[in-house]
Amino acid sequence: MMFLSEGQMSDYKGAEMLVNALPGAKYMLADRGYDADWFREALRSKGIEPCIPPKKNRKIQIDYNKELYKQRYKVENMFGRIKDWRRIATRYDRCAHTFFSSIYIAAIVIFYLNE
User: Fold this and answer.
1) What is the percentage of the chain residues whose pLDDT exceeds 70?
2) DSSP secondary structure letters along the chain
3) Using CA atoms, how far apart are residues 111 and 93, in angstroms rounded to an integer?
4) Which of the residues 2, 5, 17, 88 has the least number of beta carbons within 10 Å of its own beta carbon?
């Protein structure tokens, strides 16, 4: 499932819109932007263990699996490779369906070039 939001939408709002549609998983790796008690509880209620580092200004620091969190680089690297495509990085396409098509094509080409 892909979700396209406004460029200025906060991580909290995006997470709130997607939390009910999340598929079953053992863990959820996310960055500090998703550090919220309500989000952690929503994940746990779906049987998903959150692996989210706490924000620096959190009064009570929450423990997380640092070794598991290191695996998040794979997702970040994929986004970096997709953004190498100028059309996607600058969002030339106005229509969401055209933009998604560009992302799909880029992901397919990247996948097959790395085989």
Assistant:
1) 96
2) ------TT--HHHHHHHHGGGPPP-SEEE--GGG--HHHHHHHHHTT-EEE-PPPTT-SSPPP--HHHHGGGHHHHHHHHHHTTSHHHHTT---SHHHHHHHHHHHHHHHHHHT-
3) 22
4) 2
Average pLDDT over residues 40-48: 93
Give the predicted TM-score (pTM) of the model.
Answer: 0.74
Contact at 8 Å (CB) between 38 and 19?
no
Q: Taking residues 2-8, report their average pLDDT.
A: 71
Q: Which of 25, 22, 54, 24 is nearest to 37 (CA)?
A: 54
What is the pairing mode between strands 49-51 and 27-29? parallel
Q: Whole-angstrom Cα distance, residue 66 to residue 46?
A: 22
* Structure confidence at residue 87 (pLDDT): 84
Instruction: Please state, in angstroms and rounded to a whole number, the distance separating the CA atoms of residues 20 and 113.
Output: 34
